[in-house]
Design brief:
The chain has a domain at 83-316: Aspartate Aminotransferase, domain 2 (3-Layer(aba) Sandwich), CATH 3.40.640. 45% of the residues lie in helices and 15% in strands. It contains 17 helices and 15 strands. The strands form three sheets. A seven-stranded mixed β-sheet has the order 4-10-9-8-7-5-6, sandwiched between helices. It has a four-stranded mixed β-sheet with strand order 1-2-3-13. Helix 16 packs across helix 17 (438-454). 45% of the residues are buried. The protein binds pyridoxal-5'-phosphate. Pyridoxal-5'-phosphate binds next to helix 6.
Length: 455
């Protein structure tokens, strides 16, 4: 079992008492409750001097790597400037500049920006703006997607795990299967719909790529029915998949997009909704409505400054091209090395948003323990993989939130060839253990027992 220093245990105790005891217990059970002292680039250093490679990036927050020195310098400079922050009574020069640069990179119809502090707030914004612009209330969303945990965002999600106990949700929202163009056509034809909201590549659903022409056909259908196409690029934006937006892979020009996570380099909360002039004008339609949709931390100067510095870093370091090249190499090598294993179903992704999907083993010997653990919790298998990668190989990773059989691979875009090699070697060893050793399964049983003992 993981041992923490006495001072670190005190930190845990206070957190348990005052914040969320179950979170501490979960990390303890998974043996991932370590103290991180220093994080830079892809590397995290723990209080017992272990070096951990970050292959999840805070779920696509740290595209430029942890604590990039240029971002820190920009933030220090902004603080030293002692300029207007949170004044709520001025025109922000930094917000204008950031909006200009985001719209220029996004292109198409996206010519105006609204800033907030989280992806969920961005989703709330697109719900309100789509309804205000179209005068319709109906919203369609892609099943199994993830859009955040506010009530509006949950109203666009089908997975009961996130929703249970928190309803009722917004009326007039309906799911369509991701990638099913006929289902979308039927729903759009049935009644007027304000917007179809989806991730271009579904992240938490298991890094699910759309069929090649799906988004372009969805856009054409939406246009013919007067429905807005809204893309949630919270995970996929900021060069994560190669181009600035995942939309750019598929040749679509959405009416609105939501950006968050990587926008401000991982140090200051920030999000943005980009939209057409027409949508913006529908909401801010008169002097009386000049601030009808806003939020206290919107356009705060540290977040805006962080956004500008992050764009500079992403572009000066050519991190989009790097994501494309590194991702191709990663997928190729993983496919070569893992192809022979019974439980590996697929290696897929775009740029540095990738996944390994596992499946129920066909071998009888493996199926018995696999099914037994699945009955305790469907995420048990994936979580033991994650734990093994962490404990034995110093790799921080996670399974997808709505697809427990899929291991997500999303390192910072500054990841090096050597770090990718270390990841591949580690995954191969753990996957081999799954197929050849009883230790993996007895460890899983140990976790299962600890989970059952703490519920
Ligand atoms: C695709 C997507 N949309 C929206 C959100 C919500 O963002 P936030 O957690 O900043 O509210 C997330 C969060 O993980 C996400 O992955």
């Amino acid at each position: 079992m993981l041992k923490k220093a006495p001072a670190e245990n005190v930190v845990d105790e206070i957190y348990e008492r005052r914040v969320n005891p179950q979170w501490v217990r979960l990390l303890d059970v998974l043996q991932m409750n370590v103290t991180y002292l220093q994080c830079s680039g892809t590397e995290l250093v723990t209080s017992d001097s272990r070096r951990i490679l970050d292959f999840i990036s805070g779920y696509c927050v740290h595209n430029i790597g942890h604590n990039h020195p240029r971002l820190i310098a920009a933030l220090k400079e902004e603080l030293d400037r002692a300029g207007p922050a949170m004044l709520q009574s001025h025109v922000s020069d930094l917000a204008g500049e950031l909006a200009e640069r985001l719209c220029a990179r996004a292109g198409g119809r996206l010519t105006k920006a609204f800033f907030a502090s989280s992806g969920s707030e961005g989703i709330e914004t697109v719900i309100k703006f789509a309804r205000a612009h179209t005068g319709r209330s109906g919203l369609l969303y892609a099943a199994d997607g993830f859009h955040g945990l506010t009530c509006g965002a949950l109203s666009l999600m089908s997975n009961e795990f996130w929703k249970g106990g928190f309803g009722p949700f917004l009326p007039d929202t309906e799911a369509v299967p991701f990638g099913d163009i006929e289902a979308l056509e039927r729903k759009l034809a049935a009644r007027p719909i304000a917007a179809f909201i989806l991730e271009p590549i579904q992240g938490e659903a298991g890094i699910r790529l759309p069929p090649p022409d799906y988004l372009a056909r969805a856009q054409a259908l939406c246009r013919s029915h007067g429905t807005l196409l809204v893309l949630d690029e919270v995970q996929t934006g900021f060069y994560r998949t190669g181009p600035f937006l995942a939309a750019h892979h598929f040749g679509v020009e959405p009416d609105m997009i939501v950006l968050a996570k990587a926008i401000s380099g991982g140090l200051i909360p920030c999000s943005a909704v980009l939209m057409s002039d027409a949508i913006c004008n529908s909401v801010y339609s008169s002097l009386k409505r000049a601030f009808v949709h806003t939020t206290t931390f919107s356009e705060n100067s540290l977040a805006m400054r962080a956004g500008l510095a992050t764009l500079d870093i992403l572009e000066d370091e050519n991190l989009g091209a790097r994501a494309t090249a590194m991702g191709e190499r990663l997928r190729l090598r993983l496919s070569e090395r893992l192809g022979k294993y019974d439980m590996v179903a697929d290696v897929r992704g775009l740029g540095l948003l990738n996944a390994i999907e596992f499946k129920t083993p066909s071998s009888y010997l493996l199926r018995i323990p696999f099914e037994a653990f699945g009955k305790i919790h469907p995420g048990m298998f994936g979580q033991v993989l994650v734990m093994r990668l962490f404990k034995d190989h110093g790799i921080l990773s996670q399974i997808c939130g709505n697809n427990f059989m899929t291991l997500k691979i999303a390192p910072p875009l500054v990841v090096t060839d050597e770090q990718i090699d270390a990841y591949i070697a580690a995954v191969e060893k753990v996957v081999d253990l799954v197929h050849t050793s009883t230790t993996f399964w007895s460890e899983a049983l140990g976790i299962a027992r600890r989970v059952l003992a703490t519920v």
